[in-house]
Amino acid sequence: MTFKTLSNTVGNTPLVELVRLPSLFGVPASTKVLVKLEGNNPAGSVKDRPALSMIKRAAARGDIQPGDTLIEATSGNTGIALAMASAMMGLKMILIMPEHLSIERRQSMAAYGAEIILTPKEIGMEGARDLALQMQQEGKGKILDQFSNPDNPLAHYEGTGPEIWRDTEGSITHFVSSMGTTGTIMGTSKYLLEQNPSVQIIGVQPEEGAQIPGIRKWPEEYLPSIYDASRVNKLEYVSQEAAEETTRQLAKVEGVFVGVSSGGALYAALQIAKGQENAVVVSIACDRGDRYLSTGIFPA
Fold first, then answer.
1. Name one GO molecular function term (predicted).
2. Is 265 helix (H, G, I), strand (E, B) or coil?
3. Is residue 47 annotated as part of the catalytic site, yes or no?
4. What is d(CA 29, CA 278) in angstroms, rounded to the nearest whole number?
5. Which of 53, 104, 146, 274 has the fewest Cβ atoms surrounding its Cβ within 10 A?
6. 283 near 269, Cβ under 8 Å?
7. Of 75, 261, 262, 283, which is the active-site residue?
């Protein structure tokens, strides 16, 4: 008898229709709003897909060997997923992240055995990325670089996109995703647009001044090289207040407990859906809400 290993459980996450929340936002009854629950992956987020893809493919090419040390700058979910995948494959993991991000994410990385280096809040993810490059140059490890690694969007081209197409039976009209490294929106959009070029691809970014974990608007010099603006029809900008309130409503009204980037993406999806009849709008719920309990998003 052959049994599954942990790596076989990544992907094929549920795609669920929201029942009550769309009507509260004024979405026509003929339009369906669906959420893909990526928190059901084994390390708890959509980043399980690219983390496993980047490590397995690098190992297959001989770029990394058992016992090697990997270095990655992360805001949380990619780091947790890479720490899990590294533990599975006998690799050492150094993760660099801004100091102000939630303690739950730090604790999760440490549970998988990763070494964590915190950088000052003021230098943000850009500073964390710079430090990772410096450490690689000093010979302290190898960077997979989720921001430029084609194995990141490839995971979504081979997994997330086909799953959405299958589970909507090809009826999807709009795909909405928050943008960080942009791997999810790039890989998924490539697959969906190959099936139906009329599918609308909407990227979600934070409004000026908003601090939404997992959603970023990069300065030009730090823009991920995997990003191709030609595959995004529209950018939606979400305030911190809207992202947080939608996250709370999802839990209270639908029983869907997710993180703030998921609330931000869903807020944008609901705004899009309000103006559509007979549409099928799919949004990505990147992770679970228990990863943010210490932030005060969900008051006791």
1. cysteine synthase activity
2. helix
3. yes
4. 8
5. 274
6. yes
7. 261
